[in-house]
Amino acid sequence: MGTLSIVAWSVISIVSLIYIYFKKKYSFWKDRGVNYVEPTFPLGNLPSRKAHFKDFITNVYKYKNENPFVGAYIIAKPIVIPTSLDFVQNILVKDFSNFHERGAYSNEEDDPLSAHMFNVDGEKWKLLRTKLSPTFTSGKMKFMFPTVVDVANRFNGSLADIVKPGPGSELEIRDLLARFTTDVIGSCAFGIECNSLKDPKSAFRFYGRKIFEDAPIGAGTLLLAFQYPDLARKLHITQTRKEVINFFMNTVRETIAYREKNNVKRNDFMNFLIQLKNGESIDDERSNQMRKLTMEEVAAQAFLFFAAGFETSSTTMTYSLYELALNPEIQEKARQEINDVLANHEGELTYEAVQEMRYIDQIISEALRKYPPVVFLFRKAAQDYRIPNTKTIIEKGMEIMIPVYCIHHDPAIYPNPETFDPERFTPEQIRNRHPTSFLGFGDGPRNCVGLRFGRMQTRIGLITLLRNYRFKPSRKTAIPLIFDSELVILTPKGGMYLEIERI
């Protein structure tokens, strides 16, 4: 047999084996007799064209029926897409003990910043969650409140230099808002004045941009790392660029060294992390008296607080102002509430005044409904699990992708879902809906630990802006919005341009 024939037979054999492998994999849901979407070789149900990940999950969700989930495939791996809110509640809350893992990708050896509370599972997650939860109580938020207001006032001053009295100015607000939240998180997490409002090229803004917009891997590679984490670690795949790792590790080390040497105490996140590093309790509860956090663990949690805190809050404010620009009557109603409440507090933005602004909070919730920054939640089955009232078993290790974006846009749950309507979040409307119909911060024991802080800085930012400026669509405002398929966070492509007018 000639060399050419050997090569040809080898190729045929390899292709045949691959075909048999995929054919067997793609029979998984059919063999179990459940509702599923027919996959296509070799991507499964992933779109062949470039698209945002919300489009993949939306295309699967539309096959929902009376069954509690739709079966789908990512490459060759079968996954569960829950469509029943009762099933979602079981996963996130009622049967959390069987779905406590996210199965997220982390690579502690090559990327120590990736081993933060959002990514890790098991006992390490339980330890970090128990230790860090007391840092986000309402009492701790009151301590941090004046710092956030101070940054908001500086933000207002910087914006006043840009937006002159008279006709409105057309500005790209997404970057402006990211600079505001960067300065807030920099101050509350590190006790450092970032000054990114005055200097857009400040170190924290520079590296903050790199986290999301200049990641070492794209969304597709990250998804594969989620699916095959052991292989990804062997290939030394990281979610964070080396220069970003070095910047945050050095910043944390230097900040801690300075504070401990000079006995500096502040009511901020870094102070709480230093307490945990030194084996001290934050809330005087014995449950927190566990092992000390290492320097790498401290840096990873500070990094998570920074990355999640500045990006998701600035994105939520961006979408809120976009919708308020398109809906001037809602904007005026919000501004009236701000003025009325502040009049009862001698014009001062206090913690209590912010708590009274219910309509502002409804606007934030509606923005998170329509534009959830995280479009899906990952969970993994720790043991075989029989779905209540069915014969269907979710097998141990099976990955579940909870379709947040689809639930938030389901007309059976939210009539006319593309309409921006803050009235959906009145106490009465919330009571009338299923408890897991809103997942802007997740739900259950693995919900967003910093949701109080996120809401607080978003409220303060919106109140400060609406009190002093009016927002309108400009010539460059995208209607409808197009989302950036390169980014995991739901992000408007090309920024967000609005006309801003001083009041």
From TrEMBL:
Gene3D superfamilies: Cytochrome P450. It comes from Hermetia illucens. Its main location: endoplasmic reticulum. It is found in: Endoplasmic reticulum membrane; Microsome membrane. One of its GO terms (cellular component) is endoplasmic reticulum membrane. The keyword Oxidoreductase applies. The chain crosses the membrane at residues 6-22. It is a peripheral membrane protein. GO terms for molecular function: heme binding; iron ion binding; monooxygenase activity; oxidoreductase activity, acting on paired donors, with incorporation or reduction of molecular oxygen. It comes from the Eukaryota. Keywords: Endoplasmic reticulum, Heme, Iron, Membrane, Metal-binding, Microsome, Monooxygenase, Oxidoreductase, Transmembrane, Transmembrane helix. Pfam families: p450. Its cofactor is heme. CDD domains: CYP6-like. Belongs to the cytochrome P450 family. This is Cytochrome P450. Heme binds at C448.
